[in-house]
Amino acid sequence: MATKEENIVEEKKSISFVEQLVEQDLAEGKNSGRIQTRFPPEPNGYLHIGHAKAICMDFGVAEKYNGVCNLRFDDTNPSKENTEYVENILHDIEWLGFKWGNIYYASDYFQKLWDFAIWMIKKGMAYVDEQTSEQIAAQKGTPTTPGVASPYRDRPVEENLRLFEKMNTAEVAEGSMVLRAKLDMANPNMHFRDPIMYRIIHTPHHRTGTQWHCYPMYDFAHGQSDYFEGVTHSICTLEFVPHRPLYDKFIDFLKEMDGTADNLHDNRPRQIEFNRLNLTYTVMSKRKLHTLVDEHLVNGWDDPRMPTLCGMRRRGYSPESIRNFIDSIGYTKFDALNDVALLEAAVRDDLNKKACRVSAVLNPVKLIITNYPDGMEEEMEAVNNPENAEDGTHSIVFTKNLWIERDDFMEDAPKKFFRMTPGKEVRLKNAYIVKCTGCAKDAEGKVTEIYAEYDPQSKSGLEGANRKVKGTLHWVSTDHCKQAEVREYDRLFFVENPSADERDFHELLNPDSLHVRNNCYIEDYAATKQAGQYLQFQRIGYFMADPDSTPEHPVFNKTVGLKDAWAKQNKK
Fold first, then answer.
1. Looking at residue 296, what DSSP letter applies?
2. Which alpha helices (H) appear in 143-217, and where do they start and end?
3. Is a pLDDT exceeding 60 seen at residue 290?
4. Strand order in the sheet with 476-477
5. For the segment 7-63, what is each residue's pLDDT rounded down to a tens digit?
């Protein structure tokens, strides 16, 4: 047995490098021992599983170290943002199982940010530039060659103040002026080469309406918003590593304005970066996800093929499975491409513990038990979840005429075919052992009916009824079932890493990513299940009722198969 000291060492090894840095700050007494994080999404789209990784870290650190995690909407670009996205972000975070301390918006600080920009102009640290975006980009230089100063860099303070005020009016055209910080055009970090602080946008804001026409850029608003809120740890992804010096620089200026510059290393946010979550056969780019939705290449943001949290929820993924997957891949300082099969394995593992087992036949053929009495009906006991006895049982009705899977029958079967074939016995799950006696075919040779005889002494649960047969088949009664639509999903893209492929991503879409079956049958009990209830169609996979489902027309989404059929298929 491990000693207490060994357990402590093992726990230290298992925590992420982010948590190690947080513990270091706590040990040094920074920020008076206070932990405050934030999750800062821009409300310009729906959250995807990549955001879930950030959510788990931001909220998880606060929870683990008795801190608070706030939610802040980075709403500084009204041309792309709206309340629909805000509402869905709130829903997705709650669905994942997290609760924020407070809700803030970057727009809460528009006046403070404006006043800070005015202070920088008065200090000679910001100026209005009237170059085009192309001119500004060209004169910034390259990582190995210094930039060239803007012809407007040395404008008088009074003129900059007048023009900046003018930028916040409806009379100035978008793109005609920007406010830039006067930093260092020769700095090897390109973000220091007089970064843009403000630009003109005339689209009404979803919260402030037409009050503002001039909006702060991300790099100017983000760190200051963290500072205003008292964030201690600003945890973000690796692409923000080169932004960190500018993040700190603006906060230095802000503390100078506040008169707290003598205490630069305490009571200020510490930015920590971790790797993004990338999945095979998936894109995470919001621009591409928008394109998929806007061009109707998928059926909305919650299409079950999408990597969005609402799409995964609709498909039948559980929030616990997503969190378990994220915990399993961990947080590092280098980007990697994670196999989507690992996510699906986490889904299987979690749903195996909670899904209710039901019977469904997706590719039906009729089975007639010829020696079963006409009109006789028996209620067979079916276990809801063998992993949890507390889930109880339900009844499934057995009758003379049944539906079974067409693939479970073969007229001329090989030796190791342990399903239904003439002359061989199989067990019908929860019911009887039957022996196939033959079949009927149509003019094209397709099997239309299968015939079998049952052994009345072999009913499941009866003493002595458990004689061994090698095959067990699921079934539904033709008289006690509902016809259903079943939607089966494949990878949305047919290449492993579509984000790295140089072809137009439209060319990479899998044309067979959705297969709809309209002639499926489910037992009556399954037809009562609704969206949000996890199901296992026995011997097939995990499923969930779709929001489109009605009592008259049940619709189910296939969440994931019982096994990783994709990996097996691609080894052939």
1. T
2. 157-167
3. yes
4. 472-473, 425-428, 433-441, 447-454, 364-369, 401-405, 476-477
5. 433 444 578 999 999 999 999 999 889 999 999 999 999 999 999 999 999 999 999
293 CB neighbour count, 10 Å cutoff: 19
Q: What is the DSSP string of 343-409?
A: HHHHHHHHHHHHPEEE-EESSEEEEEETTSPTT--EEEEEES-TT-GGG-EEEEEE-SEEEEEGGGB
Residue at 394: amino acid letter: H
Pair of tokens at residue 452: 């079998």
pTM: 0.91
Q: What is the pLDDT of residues 529-553, one digit of tens each?
A: 999 999 999 999 999 999 999 989 9
Amino acid at 513: S
What is the token pair recorded at 140? 């910034």
Please give the positions annotated as active site. 42, 276, 286
Residue listed under structure tokens 């590593």: 241
Query: 320, 310, 311: which is closest to 348 by C-alpha?
Result: 320
Asked whether residue 67 carries a pLDDT value surpassing 90, the answer given is yes
Residues 6+ apart with CB under 8 A from 188: 143
Q: Render pLDDT for 133-164 as a digit per residue (tens, 0 to 9).
A: 999 999 999 999 999 999 999 999 999 999 99
